UniProtKB/TrEMBL annotation:
Species assigned in the record: Araneus ventricosus
Residue ranges annotated for the PiggyBac transposable element-derived protein domain, each copy included: 56-156
Pfam families on file: DDE_Tnp_1_7 (PF13843)
InterPro entries given in the database record: PGBD
The protein's name: PiggyBac transposable element-derived protein domain-containing protein
Disordered as annotated region, ranges: 1-26
PANTHER family: PIGGYBAC TRANSPOSABLE ELEMENT-DERIVED PROTEIN 4
Length: 165
């Protein structure tokens, strides 16, 4: 196919046209919302121990990032940083020399910043901490410095990349 174009006289054009029409019908059917009988909701699947009726976004987030998961991320980030420091010959002026262990509360802040960066998108990460009011993201500097965020992210991302290989 590639750069080929379809014309209405082409027999394969009809197949594509018919297929998109049926997809459109399916989408229309999916858009038909109906009420839910709150009294007769099916039981929760195994592993899920809460309902989300009227819950806040942070409560929903905490279902997936509970204390155990956040603690695990913190300990693995810390472990990766320690291994990196041990295995590399770092100069005295290296930023990594100033590494301090990360804890669960900092991991929650990092996750929050990552979510914020998905909502408020900027072409360069350092713009989130910019001194220029036009570029900065207010209050982000109060949560965490750019250097600390970058150092945690290097260990955090490196650990994820290593596990996915």
């Amino acid at each position: 196919m590639g750069s080929e174009e379809y014309s209405e006289s082409d027999p394969s054009y009809e197949d594509i046209s018919d297929q998109s029409d049926s997809d459109e019908d399916t989408l229309d059917a999916a858009r038909n919302w109906c009420g839910i009988d709150q009294e007769n909701i099916a039981p929760l699947p195994p592993g899920l121990n809460t309902r989300m009726d009227g819950s806040s976004p942070i409560e929903f987030f905490c279902i997936f990032f509970d204390d155990d998961i956040v603690g695990y991320i913190a300990s693995e980030t810390k472990r990766y940083a320690e291994v990196f420091i041990e295995k590399n010959d770092l100069t005295p002026s290296s930023k990594v020399q100033k590494w301090k262990d990360v804890d669960s509360s900092e991991i929650r802040i990092v996750l929050g910043i990552i979510i914020l960066q998905g909502i408020v998108q900027k072409p360069l990460q350092n713009w989130y901490w910019s001194q220029k009011s036009l570029l900065s993201t207010p209050h982000l500097k109060q949560l965490m410095s750019e250097k600390r965020f970058s150092m945690i992210m290097k260990s955090f991302i490196s650990q994820i990349m290593k596990q996915s290989i």
